[in-house]
Design a protein that fits this description.
The chain has 301 residues and is α/β, with parallel strands linked by helices. The protein contains 14 helices and eight strands. It has an eight-stranded mixed sheet, sandwiched between helices. The relative contact order is 0.08.
Length: 301
């Protein structure tokens, strides 16, 4: 099957390579020349403009968009809407908000262009392991794209599926990422407790390796954590600053809107925000309050 791909960053190129290994023809565009060269070097066809991409694809066309969520996705899909034709399909495989998917689908429907959203998990390991894909869109359209999803997935019948109408794929992926926040925070806190028990001088990588087999807390995330602890047990040269993709925020906002309590995911998000404040006004004020009402000592900066 032929597929156009827009956005040839590391993950986009890895996905293209997996598709090509599966026998698919990939035509890719990225404004970055090095990204285009990487695709060409891997055996794909790289083009310099969106017009060239559309011209290189045989109707009905399928174009996979793999660009950062928000304005860039809006601009890319708006541009494609003016170049594609009735019967073509746009797949957003990035981390877009599901409400944006619904808006894009409605806009493209006026020109007869179908829209599919695909929440994609797997990161840089997807080339080897396959990607987990949560797909939203019309059932017939998704079925037409089945060969693409089957090739990208860990197996034809596992790791992917149509979960519902347009928007549902990214909604499920959003909650997936919220759960990920909570899991990561729990592992991080647990290993921090182990590290601070100086009396036992625990080898954290050894503990992680033990937990990897037979334990109820075993997971691929723990496998990766064990690898990281083996390479850098003291986490040297790593700033205690944790970024977020935005999906944790969306998950918390959705939980509030649906009146669903989500204290773990919310706390994990707050911890990420807290990690970025190296001169916390709130902590300073808390210390001053203790001094005011109780005369407690304050540590001076």
């Amino acid at each position: 099957m032929q597929l156009g791909m827009i956005g040839l960053g590391k993950m986009g190129n890895f996905m293209a390579q997996r598709l090509m290994k599966g026998g698919h023809d990939v035509v890719g565009f990225d404004p970055n020349e090095k990204a285009r060269k990487a695709l060409a070097d891997a055996g794909g066809k790289a083009v310099d403009t969106l017009d060239q991409l559309v011209a290189a694809l045989q109707p009905p066309r399928a174009v996979w968009v793999m660009v950062p969520a928000g304005k860039i996705v809006d601009q890319t899909i708006d541009a494609l809407g003016g170049k594609l034709a009735k019967g073509d399909v746009v797949i957003d495989g990035g981390n877009s908000n599901y409400k944006d998917d619904q808006r894009h689908a409605e806009h493209l429907a006026g020109t007869g262009i179908d829209f599919v959203d695909c929440g994609t998990s797997g990161g840089v390991w997807g080339l080897k392991e396959g990607y987990s894909m949560m797909v939203g869109g019309d059932e017939k359209v998704v079925e037409h794209l089945r060969p693409i999803f089957e090739t990208l997935a860990p197996g034809k019948d596992k790791g992917w599926g149509r979960v519902g109408p347009v928007g549902s794929g990214h909604f499920v992926k959003m909650v997936h990422n919220g759960i990920e926040y909570g899991l990561m925070q729990a592992y991080a806190e647990g290993f921090a407790i182990l590290k601070h028990k100086d009396e036992f001088k625990l080898d954290l990588e050894q503990v992680a390796q033990i937990w990897r087999f037979g334990s109820v807390v075993r997971s691929w995330l723990l496998d990766l954590t064990a690898d990281a602890l083996g390479r850098n047990p003291e986490m040297k040269d790593i700033a205690p600053y944790v970024v977020d993709s935005g999906e944790g925020r969306w998950t918390v906002a959705e939980a509030i809107e649906l009146d669903v309590p989500a204290p773990i995911i919310t706390a994990a998000l707050i911890e990420r925000l807290r990690s970025r404040d190296d001169d916390s006004f709130s902590d300073k004020l808390l210390s001053e309050m203790r001094n005011e009402f109780g005369g407690h000592a304050m540590k001076k900066g």
